[in-house]
Amino acid sequence: MRTRRGMESLSTYLKKRGLTNNSPPDLLQTAKKEHRRLYQKEYQSNRKKKILRLGVSLTPTEYRRLSRTAKEHGLKTGSFIREAALAYTEQKFLLPDDTTVLALELGIRRVGLNINQVVRHIHEKKTVEELDIDRINALLIELEDTISYAFRNPPQAE
After folding, report:
1. pLDDT at position 1, please?
2. Both 114 and 143 in a single domain?
3. Which domain holds residue 29?
4. Are the CB atoms for 73 and 93 separated by under 8 Å?
5. Domain count, the chain
6. Cα(117)–Cα(111) distance, integer angstroms
7. Does residue 157 sit within a domain?
8. Each residue of 66-90: pLDDT tens digit?
9. Residue 21 counted as domain residue
């Protein structure tokens, strides 16, 4: 009887070799080791068909930087490189945690509140002065700067 992966089960393997629970322990142990070896060989063969490997050459400095960043993300270096490359090709962000997102949300919320205050002030006065427009423009520039900084400067691991 074969398992889902194609390798026969240990009990089937032992039965085909005429081994039972009453067989000498050393023969059972040898047969189990042989089954394990064959299983691993078939498993690795199937795995090679499904997973492609890619080698990357790095300088020691580049490797240290990537390893450090991977650790900040809670990943192994190879997994981090894969995740970062996929994020880049899909034009997504790879964040170490929610710190960047939270900082960005707080910055946007703070600037949004300031804009609401300026607009409320304009509604109360029923006129728009150049100073009000300048304040709104300054707040929008601050919002752009907050967003730009958050995306270009990930938080430092502590």
Report:
1. 52
2. yes
3. 10-50
4. no
5. 3
6. 10
7. no
8. 999 888 888 899 999 998 999 888 8
9. yes
Residue 69 lies in a domain: yes
Among 157, 142, 158, CA closest to 104: 142
First-to-last alpha carbon distance for the chain, in angstroms, is 54
- Count the alpha carbons within 13 Å of 64 in the hemisphere toward its beta carbon: 3
Under 8 Å between Cβ of 10 and 32: yes
Position 1 in a domain: no
3-state secondary structure of 59: coil
**Residue 8 bridge partners (DSSP):** 2
Residues 10-69: pLDDT tens digits?
Answer: 888 888 888 888 888 898 899 999 999 998 988 888 888 888 888 899 999 999 999 998
Identify whether the C-beta of residue 107 lies closer than 8 Å to the C-beta of residue 143.
yes
